[in-house]
Amino acid sequence: MRQLSDFLGVWSLERDIRQADGSQAHFEGTARWDADDDGANYLEMGQLVMPGQGQFRSERRYRWGNDLRVYFDDGRYFHSVPADGGESAHWCDPDQYDASYDFGQWPNWSCQWTVRGPRKDYVIVGRYSFLQRFSEEDG
């Protein structure tokens, strides 16, 4: 069973994005969870490579609660990470985002998002590998 303190630190992150039409993109970078009083701030940074379109700097920020609820950086609720791994979801009208977390090879783990909507049809697979652990006191 995972808890927020398990994620604190820096992780290597690779993400593959596969569109239904067969096109693909690839992200490589790091993901970092920094603890604070009531959860952790998440920051991922890296390079997104889109064949035929080039390479771009990419960055995302989220807020993780102690209960593994994830929020967008503007405070809106995103989804809950299942502590034992498994399924989660997010509805963003008109699109459905379905996640599957796999913690079976901890501290290596993955999350797959399947996205479907009127103009969206793709799968994102993110693979995280431990780099550097922080304790809650390191903040």
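That was protein one. Protein two is written in the same sequence-then-structure order:
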Amino acid sequence: MDYIRAILDARVYDVAVQTPIDRMVRLSGRLGRDVLLKREDLQPVFSFKIRGAYNRIARLGEGERRAGVICASAGNHAQGVALSATRLGVASVIVMPVTTPPIKIDAVRHFGGEVVLHGDAFDDAYAFARTLGAERGLTFIHPYDDPDVIAGQGTIAVEILQQHAGPIDAVFVPIGGGGLAAGIASYVKYLRPEVKVIGVEPSDAASMKAAIEAGERVILDRVGLFADGVAVRQAGEETFRICRALLDEVVTADTDEICAAVKDVFEDTRILAEPAGALSLAGLKTYAARGRGEGALIAINSGANMNFDRLRHVAERAEIGEAREILLAVTIPETRGSYRRFVELIGGRTITEFNYRAIAGAEAHVFVGLKLSDAKREKAELVARMDERGYRVLDISADETAKLHIRYMVGGRTPGLTDEVVLRCEFPERPGALLEFLDAVGSDWSITLFHYRNHGADYGRVLVGLQVPQDQRTKFQDRLSALGYPYEDETDNPAYGLFLRSS
């Protein structure tokens, strides 16, 4: 009841707006369910974060207002705090990682916030903001683990139940730290307990799901950064308490499913949701695929602060996320006419990618992408036909290294190369990051492979190969551990073995 009163009494509409619920006509038709989208992308900062930030700052005491506020954020919360504080005549300091894209830094300054850049990641910025706030006597505005912030986010639920009085099967809410889910679940479960409230997290950043399953908050070793707005290693203390009690379920979505949801939002509304904003819709589609049900399915589009440079990556992965594209590695005989026969076998299907290079020997490896109307059914039929022809087929549609790097490097073999180790790494997207990597590993090992593409994020994805003899592997691993960059060893990756490893 305390949260119900706090939500109904929340001060958000001095700066926030009541956002509409749009019916997603195309997606509703495909799923055979009534799919609705709550448009928090239409807020002044293009995100729901303005609600909680304003409600928290509006409730400061007079002395706290004179002193000012501080927060740590690389995106939407930063803009919400900056605009809210400016509207209320309060000075704000926003600590952001040095890897934050300039567009987000400029937005915070535009809304009146003082930007302080510190650290490579959110955890660094958060710790520094806490220290700086204590030194200056500033009030820290938490992005999610605060009752006033939770109550502000809960006003979305009030609007949903006012705007859609008909039957609702479930409301899908993206989860980072859990403030939005806690606020919405508190109100919906009080007023309409029959309505399911389902949290959605990225499969590589599911801190709330892990906490609920463990019965206590856990700290993830690492989180994926594609949906950076919800990339949180540990759920909040208060938000976990509420979500554990009130959420019906937490589902996850991978990068390809999120990209497909971004495309769905664009096709129905012509707006570009950020990955975290489309996350709840990705979870909704997974839920809808379980079978038919009654009532509307409502997803929260939590934000639209999309970096333009990231669109290329989203477009590449959306078809796979929709199960409309497959990637195959096919081994065919290296004989005259085999290339043509393989293309004939593909038939009239749309080829999205085709990488082939003749090599010495009896076999050739082909990297092929195909757009299919029904990937699950057609893939089985196509692979069966290839098996009949004696082709060896490896489905690499879910292979992250193949999708990010190897598809652009097919044919790059080095004859006679031995002891190659291949790593998939994440580098901070700032000058000097590569040099730091080279300094850390030293000059003991030669770099044999390097591939990088900018994906419009605050980190870079890199595939790197080094020639490391077996008796030096322990020393090499120690160097990597000391550096601290996230990485995966891909030396045994089958796609790498087919297309890049020296024979």
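The mean pLDDT is 88. Keep this in mind for the problem set.
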